[in-house]
Amino acid sequence: MKYFIDMHGCAKNQVDAEILQGILSGMGMEKDDSPDPSPDLIIINTCSFIESAKAESISSVIAARRDHPSARIIVTGCLSQRYGKLLVSMLPEADGYFGNGDLSLFSSFVKELLDRPAGKEPLVLIPGDRGVSCGERPFLEGFPGSAFLKVTEGCDNCCSFCAIPLIRGHLRSRKISEIISEAKSLISRGVFEINLIGQDLASFGIDLDSTGEGYLSGGETPEDVVPRGKPMVHKGKTLLPKLLEAFSGLDLQFRLRLLYIHPDNFPLEILPIIKKDKRILPYFDLPFQHGSDRILKLMNRKGSLEKYCSLIGSIRKELPEAVFRTTFMTGFPGEKKADFLKTRELQEKILPLWSGTFEYSLEDDTPAEKFPGRVFKFTASKRRKILEENQEKITAELLKSFIGTVQEFFAEEIIPEENLALGRCWFQAPEVDGVVVLSFEETDSLEPGKIYKVRLVGVSGIDLKAVLVR
């Protein structure tokens, strides 16, 4: 039996999809890299973070049924976890709906679905939140040599606009030894770049004891199903510094990037560790979201424009070479022009190398859903475009400082007919930042997933141009 998986959403969803593929392969199924010709089983791993992501996921389900009338279709991921029971009547195109709370139940779910006659009412399983789903990942869906490594699941920050706690549940951390073991396994498979991911890496380990190997008394264990409701009360402190020290203890070649650290929880203790070990990149993904103190308070955040600028200053003082990625939101309920101008002020003060800008999306059952002062979509869109245009100028100017430098180029894609290679340097995260376009000679032999010495020679928009160092 052949299966095809259609992936949507973030890096965390990608890791889940890779785990699901490992489960299907363990069941003796064969992966199909294309939905044509029609596979026996189609998995649509959905996203439900914002309205546009929901719409894209639903459209994919409808298109899959239209194009593959005889295939069995299972909808997995965030959309199923949050709306699975509702979708049975609203989206009957699928044969089954499986959530993401506990991926270990997927094998039995698939077996039950395949044993049922076609045409029956969809099978639905919305698992409780149990630990951090992990497992064999025989197929890594990113570029060769790079992989995401999930260290936490869920979130207890509970920003008023965010549905993540409703979708992914409360914070759960993996034991440090499990994380290091998976990292070593990835490196042995040829992975050079490891990108640590979680809803908030700064909260890693607050549910663990000081060793990072046991759960706090009264806290959840990997065997417990964590109930939904109010945020868990954790007594521990972040173990992100301890985790980075464990990586530093590895006598292996790799580079490590930290993706998504909530700025309100940022542990300054990680800075000397990063400074000492050049394998841990001084790349900081800090989603500030807004520059207005008033709006930040409404967002249930503890930060302020002054605090966020101070944090950036502290990091740059310790690590002058540090680069920053952030996200900004426009159109949050009650946002006035003066509030928006504070966000632009923050952007211009901290000068991030990269940023993503999003318009507020009203999400069911979040506190902000009931907030007054809805902002017109036109206004939110206009403000988003202003920030994006401003960021393009900031990025282009900052990239000029790299011209003339020699860097390690991580090749992702080779275009031999044009003598070009696309890839990244250390200050570019996969999929979300700009790329480096490398020109080479016909006699050069380049491979995806390999590292090459290059000289950066120019800027093109948000991308860089490079030539090989010979």
Automatic annotation (TrEMBL):
Cofactor entry: [4Fe-4S] cluster
Record domain MTTase N-terminal: where: 1-115
InterPro entries to which the protein is assigned, alphabetical: Elp3/MiaA/NifB-like_rSAM, Methylthiotransferase, Methylthiotransferase_CS, Methylthiotransferase_N, Methylthiotransferase_N_sf, NA-bd_OB-fold, Ribosomal_uS12_MeSTrfase_RimO, rSAM
Record Pfam families: Radical_SAM, TRAM_2, UPF0004
GO cellular component annotations of the record: cytosol
GO biological process, one term: tRNA modification
UniProt EC number: 2.8.4.-
Keyword tRNA processing (UniProt): no
The keyword Zinc-finger is annotated on this UniProt entry: no
Alphabetically ordered keywords of this record: 4Fe-4S, Cytoplasm, Iron, Iron-sulfur, Metal-binding, S-adenosyl-L-methionine, Transferase
Entry's Gene Ontology molecular function annotations: 4 iron, 4 sulfur cluster binding; aspartic acid methylthiotransferase activity; metal ion binding
Listed PROSITE patterns: MTTASE_N, MTTASE_RADICAL, RADICAL_SAM
UniProt domain Radical SAM core: residue ranges: 141-397
Classification via NCBIfam families: MiaB/RimO family radical SAM methylthiotransferase
The protein's name: MiaB/RimO family radical SAM methylthiotransferase
